[in-house]
Design goal:
Length: 573
């Protein structure tokens, strides 16, 4: 609709000013949604034309209104420097529903990403640790962005960059050798490893020599000692096996699991390149890249003892990804406390002369705390993600037993609703906001929640099922009445449906899935208002078909929108 309005504006511009109009895509981008629906459905600010035309914005708006040649599309009115458009409801209804029906699942899809690749680094679990609630944000933001960009035609490579390097693994081996057993760890899995890790730090507080022992074991890992490597790889295998259930519940998959250890043999060439390009300098024995000219603290590349750091490994990872995938964008979905690290990383790569450094982006999100306190595995103050998911599924099952005891396949529905509630909670507000996780909020299914949107989808399915059972045929060749959808409630639904492709595009390009979360929620709210105000399956057959076609469009858009967010859409609830 915006494209049609923009094309009509271009024609009016030529007629009014005998001048070359702005490009239709540029006019399309200028169109806004007025803050008050009474002002119209779209508005064109005319201030940008004032300099070229040497006229006031209001006189430009008035001239465009006088030259308006598309009264069948929309009426227009001048409001200051704005030209406001009120869409013709019959034409708008037909155009919108025909577009959705003809597109099917590809509605809001595009081929803009054809031939382009986006790499997304997300989730980034730590070996020998359970996934905690903080991992939900990086995992689901990354997963949603992957689906969004795939919907827009991009090839997307999802990478789980494992935290599998550092002295903590030496400490883990030390703890296992002192207090663990193979049988106990195999039986207890990652929780048993976490218990050993917590115990190590408690014991080390009383016996500092344990810290040295942990460092010695990590040195053995670095040197490839057979016993150390066997235990190290076993810990990794246990961890990936443990998290697979959580990822399966969330519906999350990755194209690649490569952790820090994968890049150990790829760092020396990077250090040599930095040195050859004159970027390395010594500071108190450590090798750094001086970034003071950019107002950034120095990037530490090598410690004084020659040990590599996180930045060194990330430089190697970025170069490897660029050479392997030839990406057009590489996104890092990591909490904002790593902002300085990524500023340093991206700037060092620019100084190294890599033109693709401009295509790297840090998709930051807020920090997660628990009941007002920071999360800490070491101190045992943590909320594990699988515990949250299991609790949500249990609550959903209890609600189903209470309200819909005869629902078939209650376990599958409880899983979809419980997981949907948790995922929606992660994607429901702007990603940069800090989050204080509280059980009472996480398990609240009332209000603007995933279950609310899922229930609206199920309601649409119910209406369609009843229409089919009543013998109503609403196939494309049957006549239906757009005029019967001219009421305010139906038009509110249609406007939101028509703006859904824009919400999908904005959510992807602004790396902000919450844009889509809010939009599908608004569609659900608008449809429920329509549902309560109008009896869809009453009246003339043409009117019934119109209501059912609108319901079908809402069902399809909600189902696809929820999918792009990583949420299932049950047909019955």
């Amino acid at each position: 609709m915006k494209s049609r309005l923009a094309a009509a504006v271009a024609g009016a511009y030529t007629s009014a000013f005998a001048a070359e109009p702005p490009r239709v895509p540029d006019l399309c981008a200028m169109l806004e949604v007025p803050p008050d629906p009474a002002m119209g459905d779209y508005a064109l600010p005319c201030f940008r034309f004032a300099k070229d035309l040497r006229r006031s914005p209001q006189s430009i708006a008035s001239a465009l209104a006088a030259a308006w040649l598309s009264p069948d599309l929309a009426d227009c009115a001048v409001a200051g420097g704005y030209l406001n458009f009120a869409l013709k409801r019959g034409a708008f209804t037909t155009l919108t529903l025909d577009a959705i029906r003809s597109a099917g699942d590809s509605f809001a899809a595009s081929d803009e990403g054809a031939g382009k690749t986006i790499v997304i680094d997300y989730s980034s679990i730590n070996i020998a640790k359970r996934m905690h609630i903080g991992h939900l944000w990086t995992t689901m933001i990354g997963h949603s962005l992957k689906r969004l960009f795939e919907h827009l035609g991009y090839k997307v490579v999802g990478i789980n960059h494992l935290g599998d390097w550092g002295t903590q693994f030496g400490k883990m081996i030390s703890a296992y050798k002192r207090w663990g057993s193979r049988e106990g760890v195999e039986r207890g899995g990652v929780p048993a490893l976490v218990d050993l890790y917590v115990r190590f730090h408690k014991e080390a507080a009383l016996n500092p020599a344990l810290e040295d022992e942990g460092r010695e074991w990590f040195l053995k890992i670095e040197r490839g000692d057979s016993e150390a490597m066997e235990l190290f790889n076993w810990f990794k295998e246990l961890t990936l096996r443990d998290v697979e259930r959580t990822y399966r519940l969330l519906g999350v998959t990755f194209d690649e699991y490569t952790g820090e250890s994968f890049y150990i043999d790829k760092m020396e060439p990077v250090v040599d390149e930095l040195r050859a390009k004159g970027l390395l300098t010594l500071s108190e024995g450590a090798s750094i890249v001086d970034l003071s000219a950019d107002g950034i603290p120095p990037a530490l590349i090598l410690k004084s003892d020659g040990a590599t750091l996180y930045t060194t490994r990330d430089l190697a990872a970025a170069i490897y990804r660029a050479r392997t995938y030839h990406f057009d964008k590489c996104l890092y979905v990591v909490a904002y406390h790593q902002d300085l690290h990524f500023r340093q990383l991206f700037r060092v790569l620019e100084l190294m002369g890599y033109p693709w450094a401009k295509d790297l982006a840090h998709v930051s999100y807020g920090m997660v705390s628990y009941e007002g306190a920071p999360l800490s595995t070491r101190e045992g103050r943590i909320v594990y993600l699988d515990d949250v998911l299991d609790a949500a599924i249990t609550k959903a099952r209890a609600l189903i037993d209470e309200k819909s005891p005869n629902l078939p396949d209650k376990d599958a529905t409880a899983r979809a609703v419980g997981i949907g509630a948790i995922v929606y909670a992660a994607l429901g507000s702007g990603r940069i906001k800090d989050v204080d996780f509280r059980w009472s909020r996480a398990l609240n299914f009332d209000g603007e929640t995933g279950p609310y949107v899922q229930y609206t989808h199920a309601r649409c399915c119910s209406v369609l099922s009843k229409a089919s059972a009543a013998g109503l045929d609403w196939s494309e060749e049957r006549e239906w009445s757009p005029e019967s959808l001219g009421n305010d409630e139906a038009q509110a639904v249609l406007l939101l449906l028509s703006r859904y492709p824009e919400a999908v595009s904005d959510a992807a390009h602004r790396y902000e899935p919450s844009i889509l979360t809010r939009h599908v929620t608004q569609i659900a709210q608008a449809y429920n208002r329509y549902y309560y105000e109008h009896r869809i399956l009453d009246g003339e057959a043409e009117n019934q078909r119109a209501g059912v076609i609108l319901t079908e469009a809402v069902r399809d858009v909600l189902r696809k929108g929820l999918y792009l967010l990583g949420i299932d859409a049950p047909e019955r609830m």
